[in-house]
Specification:
Distance between the termini: 91 Å
Structural class: alpha/beta
Strand content: 15-25%
Strand order of the largest sheet: 8-7-16-15-14-9-13-12-10-11
Radius of gyration: 31 Å
Mean pLDDT: 82
Largest sheet: 10 strands, mixed
Helix content: 25-40%
Low-confidence stretches: 1-7, 418-428, 436-471
């Protein structure tokens, strides 16, 4: 009615041709925007248009018939019908959220019992219920699953440092098929990964290391890895790590060394007046990965727990400018397990066991904004909701699957020596063989029963009159 009342005087004043032309231009502009950049269109306009359309064309049109068929309409003592009211609809690319004002005498449990029937009535893949406030609930319906048929190719491993951009380390794809990247240069300084066993945390971590491979090989990135589960996840990559710990006490030792190393660099750069370090062999990007934070912060001896918490909190707050980055993974993102979770600017929630874990990991209210990480199917490992600083809405993304062969390829690439230029080349001998004059076979040195302390001091070398340069 409001739309009609507004359009009538507008049409009279401007003429119907002008109104139709303006409407056509608006539709054309929106369609072009949608085709050229679907993610931004959906973020700023698509979700509003879709919510408006689906409310009136899908839900409101058959609301009375569906709630009556599902047994959610009642009558009062006068015999008048009491029907729950559809108040609002929110829509994302995957989920619809229906805000419902319950009828008198109803509880959230009544809708929980009818949830499957409601999902089938609206042709939803999955459904869940949330209590918003007394008398008001939200019914969440999953309309589609874009990752069912969307292939997530493993990003190609860069061949050289020139191919690595720390601002765009590709991990996988988002729900629109657009590449999803982490920015270890400025935005994603520290990353918290939460997900139950089998959710796909390993694919996220190994994909990140693949994106950094040339810098790891060149020594511009150093990896400090704590795998408290005996090295089950990262043991195969020992050769490419700067330091590795496979137990809680050894992990504390590594953490002490990590903090001491970056403390030393912090003071050294501070004395030189350098505010931000550039990744190089002298000042590498030191990436600390802890595969299971709970083993270090909750399920270990108290002395390890307390000291590790202090050291990790210090590392999260002081080493941004000197090249310190921390990637932590956990199955339970509770305050007891990850007491410093607020210090991670980027949080990623894979499939979790409880709905409350979503807000614990991503932040308060993220599940209400559509981050249904507890509803991620078990057959979709690697799917997650990512929350980064500067963006209100979480993004639904999936990391590429990393096989054992991919890991072996990565380790071989980062540890091969074929890219190292020999400092002292071999020389050709008169008999046609080649030899390195600087190689020394220490087995040739035998003390022959002599006292090794009795060594004649050599003051100078006798040789040609000409001066020689010694390499």
């Amino acid at each position: 009615m409001t739309t009609t009342a507004t359009m009538t005087p507008t049409t009279v004043m401007l003429g119907y041709q002008t109104v139709l032309l303006a409407a056509g231009i608006a539709v054309l502009a929106g369609a072009s925007w949608r085709l050229l950049d679907a993610p931004t269109f959906d973020r700023f306009a698509g979700r509003l248009l879709r919510a408006w359309w689906r409310r009136w064309a899908i839900y409101q049109r058959q609301w009375l018939r569906v709630v009556s068929a599902c047994g959610l309409s009642t009558t009062d003592h006068h015999g008048e019908a009491l029907v729950p009211k559809l108040v609002a609809v929110r829509s994302s690319w995957v989920w619809d959220s229906l805000h419902i004002r319950m009828a008198k005498g109803q509880t959230a449990e009544d809708y929980g019992q009818a949830l499957d029937r409601l999902a089938n009535s609206f042709k939803a893949r999955a459904a869940s219920i949330r209590v918003l406030k007394p008398g008001k609930i939200a019914l969440d319906f999953q309309r589609r699953e874009p990752f069912d048929e969307m292939p997530i190719p493993l990003p190609a491993m860069p061949e050289s440092i020139a191919g690595v951009d720390l601002r765009k380390l590709e991990i996988g794809r988002d729900e629109f098929g657009r590449p999803f990247s982490l920015d270890l240069a400025k935005r994603d300084l520290h990353v918290l990964l939460a997900g139950e066993s089998g959710a796909g945390k390993g694919s996220w971590l190994w994909s990140l290391l693949r994106a950094l491979a040339p810098m790891i090989r060149a020594g511009h990135v150093r990896l400090w890895v704590i795998d408290p589960k005996g090295g089950m996840e990262f043991g195969s990559g020992r050769e490419m790590f700067h330091d590795f710990a496979d137990g809680d006490r050894d992990g504390l030792r590594l953490m002490r060394k990590y903090v001491a190393t970056l403390d030393e660099r912090k003071f050294e750069l501070g004395r030189q007046g350098i505010r931000t370090a550039t990744p190089s062999r002298e000042t590498p990007l030191d990436v600390l990965i802890c595969d299971e934070l709970a083993a270090m912060t909750a399920y270990t001896d108290r002395d390890i727990r307390v000291e590790f918490h202090q050291l990790l909190s210090k590392a999260l707050t002081q080493y941004r400018a000197v090249g310190g980055r921390i990637i932590g993974a956990t199955q339970e993102p509770t305050k007891d397990v990850v007491p410093m979770r607020g210090l991670f600017p980027t949080k990623i929630s894979l499939r979790v066991d409880a709905a409350s874990y979503v807000d614990m990991c991503l932040g308060e209210g993220m599940r209400d904004l559509g981050a249904f990480a507890d509803k991620i199917p078990a057959y979709l490992p690697g799917v997650a909701y990512a929350k980064t600083d500067g963006r209100k809405e979480p993004r639904r993304v999936r990391a590429a699957f990393t096989t054992d062969d991919d890991i072996a390829e990565l380790v071989a690439f980062c540890t091969e020596l074929g890219n190292v230029t020999p400092i002292r080349p071999e020389i050709e001998l008169p008999d046609g063989t080649s030899s390195n004059p600087y190689e020394v076979d220490f087995e040739d040195f035998e003390d022959d029963g002599q006292n090794v302390d009795e060594v004649e001091e050599v003051e100078y070398f006798e040789g040609d009159d000409e001066e020689e340069d010694i390499a």
